[in-house]
Specification:
Layout lengths: L7 H4 L3 H20 L4 H10 L3 H22 L7 H16 L4 H7 L5 H15 L12 H11 L4
Helix pairs in contact: 2-7, 2-8, 3-7, 4-5, 7-8
Length: about 150
C-alpha cells in the first residue's frame, strides 16, 4: 500500500531531519508571536518558499534536459541514461516518497508543502484569522505550540 501523499517525504526522512525542521518551524512561529507586525512579511516569504516537490521537479527537469543536450551534442546515446535515471527516481519518489536526493535536501532544511502550510496557518492563527485561536493566553512558546497544534503539525 502506498503512503499518504502528505506524509510520504516525512515518513521516509530521518527522525533527525524531521525534528530539525519542526524545531525551525516552531522557532519561526515563536519569533513572529513576539513580533506580530512582521507576520504579513513572513506569510509573503512562505508563499515564495520552494517545497521539496518543486525543488525535485526543477532539478530533475534540468538534469533530463542536460542529458538530452549532451546526447545530441556529443553524439553519444549513453547520455540518454541520465534522463532515464532521473525519470526512474521521480517515479520512485511519486510512489514511495523517497529518491536519492531526498536525504540531502531534508538535511538542508527543504520542507514539504504540508510543513510550509503548518507554519503559514499557525501564523494566520496568531494574526487572528481564525477567531477561536486569536489572543491565546500564555507564553509565546505555548501560543506557538497551540497554533501549530491547531494545524495538526505539532
Amino acid at each position: 500500500m502506498l503512503p499518504p501523499t502528505t506524509r510520504r517525504v516525512a515518513d521516509n526522512s530521518s527522525a533527525v531531519a524531521n525534528a530539525r525542521i519542526r524545531q525551525r518551524t516552531e522557532k519561526n512561529v515563536i519569533y513572529y508571536a513576539r513580533n506580530p507586525a512582521l507576520i504579513e512579511m513572513r506569510l509573503r516569504e512562505l508563499d515564495r518558499e520552494w517545497d521539496i516537490e518543486r525543488v525535485l521537479e526543477t532539478s530533475s527537469s534540468t538534469l533530463s534536459l542536460a542529458g538530452f543536450v549532451l546526447a545530441i551534442t556529443r553524439r553519444n546515446r549513453r547520455w540518454l541514461l541520465l534522463p532515464f535515471g532521473v525519470s526512474a527516481f521521480m517515479l520512485q519518489h511519486a510512489l514511495q516518497g523517497w529518491c536519492p536526493p531526498i536525504p540531502l535536501l531534508r538535511r538542508l532544511g527543504v520542507r514539504t508543502a504540508a510543513e510550509i502550510d503548518a507554519e503559514r496557518y499557525a501564523l494566520k492563527a496568531l494574526r487572528g484569522d481564525f477567531e477561536r485561536q486569536a489572543h491565546l493566553p500564555g507564553s509565546f512558546r505555548q501560543i506557538a505550540r497551540r497554533a501549530l497544534e491547531a494545524t495538526d503539525a505539532g
